[in-house]
């Protein structure tokens, strides 16, 4: 499984945008909600599972989309099931580590 990621320095924090690679470029629509999983936001490079784990562990702010991405994050103890939301069955989660 590949993940699409983009790292950004944001106010002295590492911000990670990560999604399941197969979602890159897609629009997810449910009622009035429309989420575009854009290459400019999530598409800096593709990584494998082990590198994704390292990035998740070392980032302070994480924007995640996709079943594989969320599953990996929860497996690592990053975020909680209660924080996961879905749009048309696609989960997303935002985590701020303090």
Description:
By secondary structure, this protein is an alpha+beta fold. The chain has a single domain, classed as uncharacterized conserved protein from methanopyrus kandleri fold like (2-Layer Sandwich). It contains 3 helices and 8 strands; from the N terminus they run ββββαβαβαββ. The chain has a 6-stranded mixed beta sheet. A two-stranded antiparallel sheet has the order 3-4. The protein is globular, with a radius of gyration of 12 Å. The model has no long low-confidence stretch (mean pLDDT 96).
Using brief descriptors, characterize the structure shown:
uncharacterized conserved protein from methanopyrus kandleri fold like; globular; alpha+beta; 98 residues; single chain; 8 strands; two-stranded antiparallel sheet; 3 helices; six-stranded mixed sheet
Largest beta sheet: strand ordering: 5-1-2-6-8-7
CATH architecture: 2-Layer Sandwich
* Principal-axes shape call: globular
Instruction: Specify the structural class.
Output: alpha+beta
Average pLDDT for all residues: 96
Relative strand content: 35-45%
């Amino acid at each position: 499984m590949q993940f699409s990621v983009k790292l950004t320095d944001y106010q002295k924090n590492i911000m990670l945008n990560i999604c399941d690679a197969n979602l890159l470029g897609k629009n997810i629509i449910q009622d009035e909600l429309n989420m575009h999983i854009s290459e400019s936001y999530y598409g800096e490079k593709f990584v494998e599972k082990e590198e994704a784990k390292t990035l998740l562990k070392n980032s302070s702010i994480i924007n995640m989309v996709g079943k594989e991405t969320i599953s990996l994050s929860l497996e690592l103890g990053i975020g909680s099931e209660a924080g996961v939301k879905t749009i048309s069955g696609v989960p997303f989660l935002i985590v701020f580590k303090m």
